[in-house]
Amino acid sequence: MPRLPLRSLTIATTTTASSSSPPHLAIVPYYRRLLLPQGGPRLSQPPVSVPRHAKGGSKMSTMAASHGHSEACCNIPPVVSKGYEARGSYVDLGGYRTYVTGPEDAEKAIVVVYDIFGYFEQTLQGADILAYGGAKQQCRVFMPDWFRGKPCPIEWYPPDTEEKKKNLGDFFASFPPPNIAALMPAYVGAIKEKNGSVKKLGIVGVSDPSSSSSSSSSSSSSSSAPFYCWGGKVVALTTKAANNPFSVAASVHPAMVDPADAEGISIPTVLLASKDEPEQAVAKFEASLQGPKLVETFSDQIHGWMAARADLSDKRVKDEYERGYKTLLTFFGQYL
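Below the sequence we write its predicted structure tokens.
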């Protein structure tokens, strides 16, 4: 049976069990599976290593549930390189304009925290994949506009001038992740109130490509605002809180991985890193997670390859964009 091409695979163990009218999109068979050995490893087993097979692959680890890692159950539409027409619509939910996609009667839901560039077609396409890509389960997906129509202009990146640095610093200071994380339980309450069929929720944070080296020269708000791994930071702060409303979490290309953010996270968590994340920080983050986990580095992809900065006209980027979302679908299919 074909397997996901990886440079290395480590299986660890844990005591924890377990804007427009939508076009009709054809469904195509998936071509990769992500599995563990039949039945999964016993919880008492030591880590198992599989040697590297191919140059240019990626690294992944996964922590197995009591029944092992299920096979990928994803059957996603063809990825559109340019001019994507979103399948969902915009509604007011919990006081926020929200992109909503997926079956109205779905019992599972996912909240997507977009990157700092807001509603880009690559990000909307990703939300649609998460909604409709599961062959065995489909989800209602919600992407709230936390920036209230004022996302970060993508022209500010890279922050290679003092003006850009100041603008970015001011932007982050206006939308600090702790403030957004504090709003999440009430927002989930609004989802459940308007969507009575939803029983369980997951969260996906799509992070910006910011860099700590791009510090601002502004004296007040800007100078005190770090350049956050924005979406990932929101996810971490939300899921480690005592009032966490989510059952599973994901962080995608998280700039400035902070291992301390993983401490206290006990729900199943997947982190897909780009080549720009420090390998040591990713490893420490993984080690600090307390629940089932999957951590993979896409070693030839940049920050943003699954969101606003994805150049889907590039075949390699397109393939890895697709594989990234299939990986999320697999993990969420198992734990959500």
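Helices lie at 121-132, 162-174, 177-194, 230-239, 279-288, 315-335.
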